[in-house]
């Protein structure tokens, strides 16, 4: 394949597969790797029909017909592809015939839910930023009078310290003022972010797991499974902040497993590089690093899934609802995003960080 033609195919957001006359895949672009969630070397071991739902007989007949000389191509909608067992993706497909030194098919796939997902992500981000700005504005307004209330309580205690029953009341005021100040500080987030430092993401994850293992009681049966990609490059990170972001997500998974008393509780932490273009917060990046944190707990209640990253949203009676909001803010400061997919028995949080020249070693 000529270098120029290959570069054009690699830049497409549409998944493209080329086959030979036996329908064996001979080329897959980066978007195809992303859609089918497998490397092009693995895709090139398969036939085009291996990726399609076998129940679509009419589609298979049309594909075979397209291999004939001077045959016309075709397009089809609502086609199911099965890249892996128990995984199905609905796509639009376009098949074209090519001939030259060889002959075969050009198959283009576009996931139907791609644009819908992008629109939902944009709407969620807009709503999240609006809610976060509102909460921060309220937090600023609350913080100033809190200092005055605490100071007045201290003056009362100094003036009437000889009356123990009164100091009990002033101590309550001081303690509750401090508690509210801590909550407000969490809402406002770090005022002076740390400088970015080159760091391997696995160092951050290992620090988090070390902390969680120390905090878990000896009677806990939660098992951590690590599935790391050792070839991942170092990134420019605010190490302490990113550690906090990962810690908040892992802690949520631990609480969910513990409160639900899940049998054989397990948290899988996987790191991967996603090759091919990736749109994050409306910006297209050439590739990305993904940290997936998966638990086998009860899943996130449906009524809070859409607002999960908003401040003060939680399903726990004793929770503040700030953990995921803070984690999202930290990841966004690294130009990334956190995604969530949850169903009963499986919840996955993905921290997606772009890989670009200015943040790599």
UniProtKB/TrEMBL annotation:
<keyword id="KW-0378">Hydrolase</keyword>
<dbReference type="GO" id="GO:0005524">
    <property type="term" value="F:ATP binding"/>
</dbReference>
<dbReference type="InterPro" id="IPR013767">
    <property type="entry name" value="PAS_fold"/>
</dbReference>
<dbReference type="Pfam" id="PF00989">
    <property type="entry name" value="PAS"/>
</dbReference>
<keyword id="KW-0418">Kinase</keyword>
<dbReference type="GO" id="GO:0016787">
    <property type="term" value="F:hydrolase activity"/>
</dbReference>
<keyword id="KW-0547">Nucleotide-binding</keyword>
<dbReference type="InterPro" id="IPR003594">
    <property type="entry name" value="HATPase_dom"/>
</dbReference>
<dbReference type="InterPro" id="IPR004358">
    <property type="entry name" value="Sig_transdc_His_kin-like_C"/>
</dbReference>
<keyword id="KW-0902">Two-component regulatory system</keyword>
<dbReference type="Pfam" id="PF00512">
    <property type="entry name" value="HisKA"/>
</dbReference>
<dbReference type="InterPro" id="IPR035965">
    <property type="entry name" value="PAS-like_dom_sf"/>
</dbReference>
<keyword id="KW-0535">Nitrogen fixation</keyword>
<dbReference type="InterPro" id="IPR000014">
    <property type="entry name" value="PAS"/>
</dbReference>
<dbReference type="InterPro" id="IPR003661">
    <property type="entry name" value="HisK_dim/P_dom"/>
</dbReference>
<keyword id="KW-0067">ATP-binding</keyword>
<dbReference type="Pfam" id="PF02518">
    <property type="entry name" value="HATPase_c"/>
</dbReference>
<feature type="domain" description="Histidine kinase">
    <location>
        <begin position="137"/>
        <end position="357"/>
    </location>
</feature>
<comment type="function">
    <text>Member of the two-component regulatory system NtrB/NtrC, which controls expression of the nitrogen-regulated (ntr) genes in response to nitrogen limitation. Under conditions of nitrogen limitation, NtrB autophosphorylates and transfers the phosphoryl group to NtrC. In the presence of nitrogen, acts as a phosphatase that dephosphorylates and inactivates NtrC.</text>
</comment>
<keyword id="KW-0597">Phosphoprotein</keyword>
<feature type="domain" description="PAS">
    <location>
        <begin position="1"/>
        <end position="43"/>
    </location>
</feature>
<protein>
    <recommendedName>
        <fullName>Sensory histidine kinase/phosphatase NtrB</fullName>
        <ecNumber>2.7.13.3</ecNumber>
    </recommendedName>
</protein>
<keyword id="KW-0808">Transferase</keyword>
<dbReference type="GO" id="GO:0000155">
    <property type="term" value="F:phosphorelay sensor kinase activity"/>
</dbReference>
<dbReference type="InterPro" id="IPR036890">
    <property type="entry name" value="HATPase_C_sf"/>
</dbReference>
<dbReference type="GO" id="GO:0006355">
    <property type="term" value="P:regulation of DNA-templated transcription"/>
</dbReference>
<dbReference type="InterPro" id="IPR005467">
    <property type="entry name" value="His_kinase_dom"/>
</dbReference>
<dbReference type="InterPro" id="IPR036097">
    <property type="entry name" value="HisK_dim/P_sf"/>
</dbReference>
């Amino acid at each position: 394949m000529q270098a120029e033609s290959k570069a054009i195919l690699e830049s497409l957001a549409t998944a493209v597969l080329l086959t030979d006359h036996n329908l064996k895949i001979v080329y897959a672009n980066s978007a195809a790797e992303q859609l089918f969630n497998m490397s092009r070397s693995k895709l090139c071991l398969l036939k085009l029909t291996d990726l399609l739902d076998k129940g679509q007989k009419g589609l298979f007949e049309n594909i075979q017909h397209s291999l004939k000389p001077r045959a016309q191509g075709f397009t089809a909608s609502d086609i199911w592809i099965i890249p892996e067992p128990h995984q199905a993706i609905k796509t639009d497909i376009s098949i074209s015939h090519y001939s030259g030194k060889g002959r075969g098919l050009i198959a283009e796939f576009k996931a139907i839910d791609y644009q819908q997902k992008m629109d939902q992500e944009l709407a969620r981000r807009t709503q999240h930023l609006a809610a976060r700005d509102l909460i921060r504005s309220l937090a600023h307004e609350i913080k100033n009078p809190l200092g005055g209330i605490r100071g007045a309580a201290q003056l009362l205690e100094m003036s009437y310290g000889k009356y123990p029953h009164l100091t009990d009341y002033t101590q309550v005021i001081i303690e509750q003022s401090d508690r509210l100040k801590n909550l407000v500080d969490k809402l406002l987030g770090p005022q002076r972010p740390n400088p970015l430092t080159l760091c391997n993401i696995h160092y951050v994850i290992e620090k988090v797991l070390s902390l969680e293992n120390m905090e878990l009681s000896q009677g806990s049966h939660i098992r951590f499974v690590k599935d790391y990609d050792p070839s991942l490059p170092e990134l420019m990170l605010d190490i302490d902040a990113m550690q906090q972001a990962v810690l908040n997500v892992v802690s949520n998974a631990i609480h969910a497993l513990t409160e639900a008393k899940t049998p054989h509780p397990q948290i899988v932490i996987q790191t991967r590089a996603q090759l091919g273009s990736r749109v994050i917060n409306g910006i297209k990046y050439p590739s990305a690093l993904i940290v997936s944190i998966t638990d086998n707990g009860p899943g996130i209640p449906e009524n809070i899934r859409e607002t999960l990253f908003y401040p003060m949203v939680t399903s726990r009676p004793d929770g503040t609802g700030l953990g995921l909001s803070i984690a999202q803010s930290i990841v966004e400061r690294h130009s990334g995003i956190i995604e969530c997919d949850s169903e009963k028995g499986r919840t996955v949080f993905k921290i997606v960080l772009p890989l670009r020249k200015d943040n790599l070693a």
